[in-house]
Design goal:
The complex is a heterodimer. By secondary structure, chain A is an all-alpha fold. Chain A has 15 helices and no strands. Classes of the chains: A mainly alpha, B mainly alpha. Chains A and B meet through helix 1, helix 2, helix 6, helix 7 and helix 8 of A and helix 1, helix 3, helix 4, helix 5 and helix 6 of B.
Amino acid sequence: MTRWTLVGTLVLGLIALVAGLAWLLHRRRGHTRGEALVRSAGYVLLWTHCLLVVTPFLWVILTSLKPSREILASPFSVPRVLREPTAASWRQTADNYATAWTKSHFRSYFANSVKISACTVVLTVGIAAMAAYVLARFEFFGRKLLYLLFLAGMMFPAQLILVPLFFQFSWMSDQLSAVTLAVTRALGIGPYRVQMHNSHLTLILLYTAVSLPFSVFVLTNFMRTIPSELREAALIDGATEWQAFWRVMLPMARPGLVSVAIFNFLGVWNEYLYALVFLDEEAMRTLPLGLASVSILADYKSDYGLMFAGLVITVLPILAAYLFLQRHLTRGVTLGALKG
Amino acid sequence: MRPSRGMIAVFLLPAVALYTVFVLIPALSAFGYSFTDFTGVTRPRWIGLENFTELADTGSDFTAALLNNLFIILVPGTATLLVALAFAFFIDQQLHGSRLFRVVFFFPNILPLAATAALWILVFSATDIGAVNRVLRAMGFAPAQFMSSANLLRSLVPILVWGGAGFYMILFLAAMSSIPSTLYEAARMDGAGLWHQFRHVTLPLLRDTIAMCLIFTIIGGLKFFDLIWIFEKQHPTRDSHVVATLIYSMAFNQYRSGYGAAMSIVQFVLILAVTLVSLKLFRKERLEY
């Protein structure tokens, strides 16, 4: 009770102090009353929001160092490991992460997320760049229609394709299995069935397909800015069409490719809905799915240690990547804004 | 030098094939399913417009869900834009630490929504670990059930502002930085204070950006899914269902895939309408092909 009142008073006092200092400083620098007021209010607002963003993460990181029992007993104290760092308390802390990492499959979630995101990005960028190059550079029958069809995909909500896709996958599994069974039987090797549900390959192909509209849109616009004389010069020098694309056009389009890659990586890494529908098996799941199921269960089991550790495992790599690629990310996502 | 037809076909084939199988065919079959009573198990039977008349009923679960989408667009959506505009305005005043603010404020936007959800479940928890309820209790208020179905939509307001303001702030800042400083100087010469400069120089020149952000807000509000699905532990109620969660429940939990498909068609048509309006608004800059 008293501690919380104290914390509240401190925070409010700090804010008042910042406001007062800012006001005085601005007045002394010769700003008008109005300007000083606006700028002081700005500092208060911006620093408050800064605290609101940073504090929850600091709390989560600190709390993840506590075993579940300690979390329930004193969720807002400094973790015991930091107060009295004994071997025993370190082991309990490590237990949180060990449980999350192995027993709760966060290791698999992590590996799955890396694998699925990386494959999707490589596939999307490659396929979209090829299509965009042709759509941007050459005139052929049906070009405008095809481009419009791709653009239309940006408006499809996930639910629109999700429901039919679920049943389409069952049908496709049966059809493809009929073929593979016949082939494997003819070759005399073990019967092989195709299962499109609960498969990383399916999910990668699906993610690639739904990432295409935006990627094709951005890359087509980008390819238009590259002079077509470059291709002709390469062809005259004896290059094949493929070499002209791979060696000349792609390197020129690199800034566009990077933005598209970053944007898609983020989208796939964070994706929840498709993964929820198409990955059933625990060990097949991705990080967002795993974290969501841990959060959903935490209230029932009161096992918050796992949830905190899982949250840290999910957020830390993103934070690290963000601090490294901050400019690129802001640009990529702002570009992604066009997708809506 | 004209490229051969074969080369064009080879370059287009992978994209067209994937897109057709995984996007176009399912999207088209959604239209087909929406006129049937498909359950996911039995053979679909043609029932004409029955699904659509059912969901258009004013008392239907769909109408209730759509109203919740409307709430998300109007209340948290608008609040996010206003807060983002305020942030952008202050940062544009060249306050110290502008770079830090940009980096920090944008960060929640790149988190997976599952992580945002987990974080706020902990912050708003009604058990002892919920920080907000701790503070409320210390101030003498009764603890609140922030995450109950009945309160969920209102609790989304701070969550969405927290998670979305940074993104719109970046868009506003980009637009503000392209306003020539001579305009502000001229306004100052005429004796305009900060507020008048904002009201009569900045705001009018941000009109297109604001309109674009409104359209993102509307489309994002129509597609809203993840947070409600996780907060409601995969079982939203009539109080908390939005269109996207309702479609999911219909198609995969209640064996009414045909009805769910009809809802997704309506959702798509609404998004299409908003997009077409926005294309009309921004015709000058975009839609070049």
